[in-house]
Amino acid sequence: MSGSNAGAWDAYWQKAIKVGFHNKEAEHREIEQFWRQFFTCQFEQQSRTVILELACGKGAVSEIAHQCLEKSSICQPPNQNAEIEVRHYCLDYSLAAVKNTLEKPGLEGGIVADAAALPLKNNSADLVFSQFGIEYAGRKALLNAAKIVKPGGRLAAIIHHANGLIYQHSKCSVKALERVMQTDIFPLARRAFTAGFEVLNGNTGQETFVRADSDMSVAVKQITALLKQQGPSVADGIILQFYRDLGDMFNRLQVFEAKDIANWLNNMEDDFSSHLQRMQSMLDAACDKEAMAFECQQLTAEGLSIEHCEEIASHQGILGWKLIAKA
């Protein structure tokens, strides 16, 4: 993962965890079913195992793994004395993500590292899994992950699809955010707010303010047209929220401090830039059919057998690729 994209994701997880964000990607019934079936099957086959979630994010899949482990332990036959013993770890580039995942039950430890350069020994885990994460680390990340899987163990992943719903959403978000940035709304807003405060403080006349207001209104009209065309939820609603707050603050300028407005504009510009980087990184990470075929060839050359490599979809469309490989 590039430094700028990694920074954008780390900032995202820090903020998301702070506000109690819930990861909607884990809410798809089909994806959750895939993981529940996978973990239930694996825990039934092995009583002692080391499992690792790569690019864990908020640990949605680790949580499912723990629930399946608990259920498997309860449902063991009475004559089966061996307890299911699992050592459960997580790994992510973001310290905030790792810390949050470690708060979930069942985890023994976490590692802050790039999935492109795993600081782990070969043949050190029985199950390695990732959901919409490992592909961000580049095309060699799956191969690197395969090397740490013990013989007989499995590597499982849900991977972004280059024609899937998330890809389409990200593509739309990137275009919308770029259009907003191209209006120069942030420098124009700074100029208009500064001129407005100068008038309120009696430091200048109306002429400068009227000109700055007129210049900003051109950008605002362009954003208005974009929201009408793309809908209020475009780019996860960040554009609409900014649009509303901008109008509210500008219309009630007298109740705000100039430094608070300046800080808000700086933070919003950073949020737009970070959101754009994250959406673009999703587009860059997504795999088409040819890319997945290449990944499978690489894994096969490493000695793994591909048990599943196919699309996973809902009634709305393609959600991603599901991959299971046995070492």
TrEMBL record:
CDD domains: AdoMet_MTases. It holds the Pfam family Methyltransf_11. Residues 86-156 form the Methyltransferase type domain. Gene3D superfamilies: Vaccinia Virus protein VP39. Transmembrane segments: none annotated. This is Methyltransferase type 11 domain-containing protein. It comes from Lacimicrobium alkaliphilum.
